[in-house]
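Protocol step 4 of 6: structure prediction from sequence.
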Amino acid sequence: MPVTARPSRAISLTVDELAAAVPAAVDGDPAAVERLLGHLRPGIVRYCRARLGRTDGSYGSADDVAQEVCMAVVRALPRYVDTGSPFAAFVHGITAHKVADAQRALYRDRSAATGEVPESADPAAGPEDRVLARERAQAARRLLDRLPPAHRDLLLLRVVNGLSAEETGAVLGMTAGAVRVAQHRALARLRSLAVSTGMEVPA
């Protein structure tokens, strides 16, 4: 079935509703598939935007990858087998794979990342402010890329996607306690990297 990007509000499912939606979606129930995607898509978009950033002043490329992830999830649903791992881990694996493919394609075609200053000014911020904000975001992404992949994904899930320690642990196969310890270490490492590059770090 086609996957459409809808601007409507996100669908938030409870744990029980999600548990019920996954088997129904796997069985091909269109309503269950739609509800499942409505629940998953906001987090997928946030993850893709955090990993891929802006191109030509917009998140168009990252959002395109997020759409590809949603389509890949739909195509994979008939083959999904519940092995005891959370469904979120299954989705995260697809997302990480698609993001990695997009990054490789970007490296092959550097012309896609021009970093041009947008022609129109944002009424809420001047062009200089927008350029500075973009530079800070790019610097933050470069720092994240220097972290071990496990720490980077943990911070993206916790900070960008807003998952709880328990939810993050379910995706990454860790206990909530281990997530909190790893998060503390990842943030300390990130702060150390920022300081070493001369980036201003809040006290």
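Step 5 (inspection) to follow. Residues 161 and 174 are 17 Å apart (CA to CA).
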